[in-house]
């Protein structure tokens, strides 16, 4: 079995943008294309010569956000899985389990004068621990001997 991989993407997490239709053609937003190319470049730099997984995989994404609110977690996950399609794994149909979590900054911070609401210029903290906004992607191949845990068994008509 091959080893799992983890990729850290610094900066604000970016969600997959909806394609716009111009003159009958779908056009992916530039911000989405740029974010996908950054993920692809970082993966190739971190894992040179990587052969895409051919087995079923588990994808886990962590999104450490700069601010609360949008974007939705599913759009954040979609950008990551689309960017790594064909690079980390052959096709996204191999993804058996996918999880994503957004970590949002604390609403209030403690200063020398007491507690106050967090402002946009304040550093990001999660339960008081400072962090920089980033995305963390874990890709884990599923061991073939555990197939029975993920596939329902079919009963034959004879039994």
Automatic annotation (TrEMBL):
- The domain of life is Bacteria
What name does the UniProt record give this protein?
Uncharacterized protein
| One of the record's GO molecular function terms | magnesium ion binding
- What transmembrane ranges does the database entry give? none
The organism of origin for this protein: Bifidobacterium choerinum
Matching Pfam families = RusA
What GO terms describe the biological role, i.e. biological process, of this protein? DNA recombination; DNA repair
């Amino acid at each position: 079995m091959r080893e799992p991989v983890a990729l850290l993407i610094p900066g604000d997490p970016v969600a997959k943008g909806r394609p716009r239709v111009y003159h009958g053609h779908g056009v992916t937003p530039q911000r989405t294309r740029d974010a996908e190319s950054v993920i692809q470049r970082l993966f190739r730099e971190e894992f040179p010569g990587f052969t895409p997984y051919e087995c079923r995989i588990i994808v886990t994404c962590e999104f450490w956000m700069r601010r609360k609110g949008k974007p939705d977690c599913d759009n954040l996950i979609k950008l990551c899985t689309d960017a790594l399609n064909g690079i980390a794994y052959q096709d996204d149909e191999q993804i058996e389990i996918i999880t994503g979590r957004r970590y949002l900054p604390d609403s209030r911070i403690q200063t020398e004068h007491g507690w106050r609401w967090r402002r946009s210029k304040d550093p990001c903290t999660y339960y008081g621990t400072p962090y920089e906004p980033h995305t963390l992607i874990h890709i884990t191949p599923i061991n073939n001997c555990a197939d029975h845990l993920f596939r329902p068994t079919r009963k034959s008509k004879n039994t």
